[in-house]
Amino acid sequence: MTELPLNPEETFDENTVESTNENHQTDEQLQNVEAENNEAATEPVIQESDQNEEPALPKNKGGSHDDFDWNLGKRSEKHYPANEKDRYIKLYDDTFKVIAKNEIIEGKVEAITNTDVILDVGFKSDGMVSLSEFRDTPDLKVGDVVEVYVVEKEDKNGQLILSRKSAKLLKAWENIVTAHAQDLVVKGKIISKTKGGLIAEVFGLETFLPGSQIDVKSITDYDVYVGQEMEFKVVKINEVIKNAVVSHKALIESDLAEQRQRIIAQLEKGQILEGSVKNITDFGAFIDLGGVDGLLYITDISWGRINHPSEILQMNQKLNVVVIEFDDNKKRISLGLKQLTPHPWEVLDMNLSEGSVVKGKIVNIEDYGAFLEITPGVEGLIHVSEVSWSNQPINARDYFKVGQEMEAKVVTLNRDERKMSLSIKQLLSDPWETIEDRFPVGSKHTGEVKNITPYGVFVELSEGIGGMVHISDLSWTKRFNHPSEYTKAGEKLDVVILGIDKEARKLSLGHKQIEEDPWDTFATVFPQGSVHQGTIIRRDDNGATVSLPYGLEAFAPVKLLKKEDNANALLDETLDFVITEFDRNDKRIIVSHTDTWKRQKEQTEKEHKEREDKEASENMEKINKTVEKSTFGDIDELAQLKAKMEGAEEQTPPATTEEESGE
């Protein structure tokens, strides 16, 4: 804005001012006006006037005004130039503080109302803060100086918005950031429990104390810490959400670092130390050795098998352990407990030998067998082949159960390699020694179905004795895709001994042989070309399985399932079928429905032709007899006979070929 001259008696060019305010002046003219004004400011004209008169102000047709109010009080007859006005404005502005949004400033309590605290912060206007933000300062009084946070320099009403709560939080966060950067120790109070740890108030700001950072030992009860004052280190901060994580464990660890180093420096392999169980995990236990922790692996707790360390150890239990190995760099110490006692194989009873009967419990099961623990640390393998005299496959996981107690016979024993093989079946006599006497060929027995495979059924006749019924030996009349269509595991099944393989310990069994072979009879009932009623019970792309009388099943190829109306025979449909093939040896019957109606059609056509031939023969015989009576015969009789023959020809349909009939 172009400044006007300060001398009230100085003459103004009204046209120049008007054109300037109306923004119609050229750049050169504007520069001239500024030059004149500057010249007038550097060489002011001071005139004396009556003291009672007000200084004449310059006319301002453009509507602009000075920043300085010339009407405040009576002035001397001397008037001041423009640079003097700027000095007064600066002096006035310097009486106020310069504040910025989002900064912390100090304010003096000017007044306290029932709801607010009035603060003088040295700004153009006072600020107000809700009295509720001073709950922690019950003795607040006028004149106290407090820190507040500038929320807004001016709201929509021109009011200065301040917050003491925000100032406290921001100040607290600055202190926490400093403590984290400089690794300082801070104090705080545990105010509540939360998921996974505790909430600690530090510098008035809530921070998170994870359960794992409370102490070097495992803590299970967090409630005992609520209300306590503790020292922490700030281990993590999040500037975005103003969140911090603190640790009390870090202080303890720093105190124990020197003690740990001293203990490790004195460690030796094989050294026996006293410690207490600090923590128990699935893979072992941590032992406190007096300032340093060592790991006792589950495999080093006992010579015997255990599923979890808690089976032997308890929290805070004191015990002696031996140092197996340690790493100075990683500060890792491996401990052992079982090494304090001799290996069980070294003190195994010398009377134990091959052929001895032992007792124990199953401690581990694998696909190939189970391990029987004789004493803790001494185990023997019961292979699946030593479970039963039968050759039937044994599933170890189905037969054995962990913890199951049983007896077994020692088959092999190697003390040097610490290995032992055991047998259950050798506790019993071998039933195959007298197999021919108990199960002669051709004898009938009842057994239990133990296992089913795609090619047959395994049947157990007695303990250790069993055999297989092939799928083809289940039924004389039916064919199965799988033996499970006929029987299930656990069911009883009558069988006949078909053969004995003593060396391989196998029996060949049959079920259909319980009854006589009916196919000799079927050959007379279902000769080739005979027609029988059947029902389609299964269908596939190749054809259909047809159920015939007496429980027989036959097969009809897909091309032989066409009906007379050229449609395909459907599932569960009952139709007439002709036997096209009967194989007694392979127990196979092939049938056709298409041939039934084709044969019937051919038979009908044959019978019709035979009738026509017979009638024609009879007519010719009559003609011959008539001719014998007379050379010319009876004209009327001949005419009647001729007409009759022509009528018969018109009624007889022409013969059709198979292609014309659609076949």
Explain this structure to me?
The protein contains 10 helices and 30 strands. The chain is α+β, with helices and mostly antiparallel strands and 663 residues long. It folds into 8 domains: 14-93, no CATH class; 104-168, Nucleic acid-binding proteins (OB fold (Dihydrolipoamide Acetyltransferase, E2P)), CATH 2.40.50; 183-252, Nucleic acid-binding proteins (OB fold (Dihydrolipoamide Acetyltransferase, E2P), Beta Barrel); 267-340, OB fold (Dihydrolipoamide Acetyltransferase, E2P) (Beta Barrel), CATH 2.40.50.140; 344-427, OB fold (Dihydrolipoamide Acetyltransferase, E2P); 431-514, OB fold (Dihydrolipoamide Acetyltransferase, E2P); 519-592, OB fold (Dihydrolipoamide Acetyltransferase, E2P) (Beta Barrel), CATH 2.40.50; 599-651. The strands form 6 sheets. It has a 5-stranded mixed β-barrel with strand order 1-2-3-5-4. The chain has a 5-stranded antiparallel beta sheet with strand order 8-7-6-9-10. A hairpin with a 4-residue loop joins β9 and β10 (243-247). α9 runs antiparallel to α10. It is elongated. It starts with 13 loop residues before the first helix and ends in a 12-residue tail after the last helix.
Task: Give the gist of this structure.
The protein is α+β, with helices and mostly antiparallel strands and 663 residues long. It contains 10 helices and 30 strands. 21% of the residues lie in helices and 32% in strands.
